[in-house]
Amino acid sequence: MADHQEASVTLPSDPASVSAARRYVSDVLAQWGLPDGADAADTVRLIVSELATNAVQHTFGLSPTFTVDLRLDRDERLRIGVTDSHPRWPQRLPAAVQQDNGRGMVIIRWLTAECGGRLSVTPTDEGGKTVWIALPWTAAVQG
Q1: Contact, 132 vs 121, CB < 8 A?
Q2: Who contacts 85 (Cβ-Cβ below 8 Å, separation ≥6)?
Q3: Which residues contact 96 (CB under 8 A, 6 or more apart)?
Q4: Which residue, of 6, 16, 59, 94, is most buried by count of CB atoms within 10 Å of its CB?
Q5: Which of 74, 78, 73, 75 is nearest to 48 (CA)?
Q6: How many CA atoms, within 13 angstroms, populate the side-chain half-sphere of residue 54?
Q7: Which residues sit opposite 77 in a β-bridge?
Q8: Taking a C-beta distance cutoff of 8 angstroms, is the pair 105, 90 a contact?
Q9: In 10 A of CB 105, how many CB atoms?
């Protein structure tokens, strides 16, 4: 494999873009050797779906687009980043609020940890943020 492979798509902050992000990620992962029916592919799609939903719902119209970045590094880590231009970082919501919404980051954190990955949030130069998920690729391809 080359040093790394990268793919990226920018979509409007619209609910219909969540399914477009999932389809895009599925297509890229299949090109990189992770078949569509693999458990790991389902996990990655769910993570992307939750991140994209957050980018659409929780930026309150202040981020007209969001970007999904995929990077497969030589160190055999799949990195998934979802960037929006809203400055507010993900928050842990009280359990009472989570009954109806706000569970996306809980799901993302759990899935990431379950796969042996890690989550981080970094600021962008434009004042927004990127939520990054790093997952072991070898486990994904074998799973």
Answers
A1: yes
A2: 59, 62, 63, 64, 65, 124, 126, 127, 128
A3: none
A4: 59
A5: 78
A6: 28
A7: 136
A8: yes
A9: 20
Q: How far apart are CA 2 and CA 115, in angstroms?
A: 24
Residue 43 has phi, psi (to 5 degrees) of -65, -45
Bridge partners, 9 (sequence order): 68
The pair of structure tokens assigned to 67 is: 């970007």
State the Cα angle at 91 between 44 and 64, rounded to 5°: 70
Question: Rounded to a whole number, what is the largest CA-CA distance in the chain?
Answer: 47
pLDDT digit string, tens, across residues 6-31: 999 999 999 999 999 999 999 999 99
Q: Are 106 and 98 in contact (CB under 8 A)?
A: yes
Q: How many residues does the chain have?
A: 143
Sign of CA dihedral 101, 8, 27, 65: positive
